[in-house]
Design brief:
heterodimer, A: mainly beta, 6-stranded antiparallel beta barrel, 4-stranded antiparallel β-sheet, 3 helices, B: 121 residues, mainly beta, globular
């Protein structure tokens, strides 16, 4: 129940741990700067939340209702808006800038974003089915195999794993470690991979850990 | 700054600036930092560079030596802090970028001709 940041995936590299010297795979993330564009409270909206905006654009990229909404907080035109539920919205003010400084080195974060779209994918790619033999007269290369019994039940059970659209879904990768915070440029180094390709929109929040908060 | 420039600037902080020029076929001595009972010391490893891979912060060399009759190959991340120092002992004259053919050879056949037109640093 704390505010997070919107950001952009920039790419991956590796850095060295200064103490042990081991190499760490890291994702470079542009996190913020975000602007508080709306404060929702129990009295007015029935719940407590902070709406933040990210990525400045030209005013002509937005329509008049969007520009009017952003004008209320005095924010410049922003492309993306997202709400974060908070316990106490009174500690925020309209138009306040949120930077990468809200995260500290070593902290665990959850990173949510859209995964790479793979289109209509087959059994092997989508569900990790094993493939048939490629040679020795085999004609079963990437087929699904049996999808169930015969006359009884006479139908395929719902939920049977089959080919179909794969990827392009919202996914949250939990408990990734922040390796470094560059407050000046609003850049986070996060250990491990995050969803999507470079340029993907991400939402970075402090990790929710069962039993805490 | 675009994404690529930002990533390069992050890598630049971790790059070493005093690496010798290494070529495939060279004989090198690599000092590796190892932890031993709470104490840190530098262990030398000497052998022939049979391959170089990647560039920038990921750059590695594969060093082959024969130890007690057994071929040993170790891959070193050149910019890693665990690689304390690298010294080129002898420049080799080879006509391949990867010397994997040395794995099939024993004894005298594994010798590499020395070249003298490159300095040792």
């Amino acid at each position: 129940m704390t505010v997070g940041l919107l950001g952009t995936k920039l790419g991956m590299t590796q850095v060295f741990n200064p103490e042990t010297g081991e190499s760490l795979p890291v994702t470079v993330v542009q996190a913020g700067p975000c602007t508080v564009t709306q404060i929702k409270s129990d009295q007015t909206d029935g719940y407590n939340a902070i709406q933040v905006g990210y990525e400045e654009v030209k005013p002509k990229a937005l329509n008049k209702p969007e520009l009017g909404h952003l004008a209320k907080s005095g924010a410049s035109p922003l492309r993306h808006l997202k709400e974060y539920r908070v316990a106490d919205p009174s500690s925020f003010e309209m138009g306040q800038a949120l930077t990468a400084e809200i995260f500290t080195e070593g902290q665990l974060v959850d990173v949510a974003g859209k995964t790479i779209g793979r289109g209509f994918a087959g059994y092997q790619k989508r569900h990790n089915f094993r493939r048939g033999p490629m040679s020795h007269g085999s004609k079963n290369h990437r087929l699904p195999g049996s999808t169930g019994a015969g006359t009884t039940p006479g139908r395929i059970y719902p939920g049977k794993r089959m080919a179909g659209r794969y990827g392009n879904t919202n996914v949250k990768i939990r408990k990734l470690q922040v390796v470094k915070v560059d407050a000046e440029r609003n850049i986070l180094l996060i250990k491990g991979a995050v969803p999507g390709k470079p340029g993907n929109l991400l939402s970075i929040t402090p990790a929710t850990i069962v039993g805490q908060q | 700054m675009n994404a690529e420039a930002i990533i390069r600037s992050i890598e630049a902080e971790h790059l070493k600036d005093s690496l010798p020029t290494i070529h495939v076929g060279d004989r090198v001595r690599v000092g590796i930092k190892i932890q031993e009972g709470g104490k840190e010391r530098v262990q030398p490893y000497e052998g022939t560079v049979i391959a170089m891979r990647h560039g920038g912060i990921n750059q590695t060399i594969t060093v082959r030596r024969i130890f007690q009759g057994v071929g040993v190959e170790r891959v070193f991340l050149l910019h890693s802090p665990l690689v304390a120092n690298i010294k080129v002992l002898r420049r080799g004259k080879v006509r391949r970028a990867k010397l994997y053919y040395l794995r099939d050879r024993v004894g005298k056949a594994t010798r590499i001709k020395q070249r003298f037109d490159r300095s040792l640093d």
